[in-house]
Amino acid sequence: MSELSKRCEYCFYGKIAADKQTVLCPKKGPVPLDYFCRKYKYDILKREPKKLAPIEKINPDDYKL
Fold first, then answer.
1. pLDDT the model gives residue 26
2. Of 39, 38, 26, 34, nearest to 4 (Cα)?
3. Burial (CB count <10 Å: 0-12, 13-18, 19+), residue 36
4. Calpha distance 40→29 (Å, rounded)
5. Is residue 4's pLDDT more than 60?
6. How many secondary structure helices (H) and strands (E) does the chain include?
């Protein structure tokens, strides 16, 4: 598994501000999304999963004997 980057955007303590460019942190105040500090604690529920690749259509001819 690759190393996840530390970002306040995914921190347990931070909340995304209305402008979507700032994180409101109770420890450090307003900070950029990509900032992180010593109090950083990863919150798995804040990360959005990558979108899956589209599934190819099934061709019935591939299953004929």
1. 93
2. 34
3. buried
4. 13
5. yes
6. 0, 3
Angle (CA) 21 22 27, round 5° = 165
Q: How many CA atoms lie within 13 A of 31 on its CB side?
A: 19
Q: How much is the pLDDT for 1?
A: 40
- The secondary structure of residue 7, as a DSSP letter, is -
d(CA 34, CA 51) in angstroms, rounded, equals 22
> How far is residue 65's CA from residue 53's CA, in Å, rounded to a whole number?
29
What is the pTM (predicted TM-score) of this model?
0.65
Amino acid of residue 26: P
Rg, Å, the chain Cα set = 20
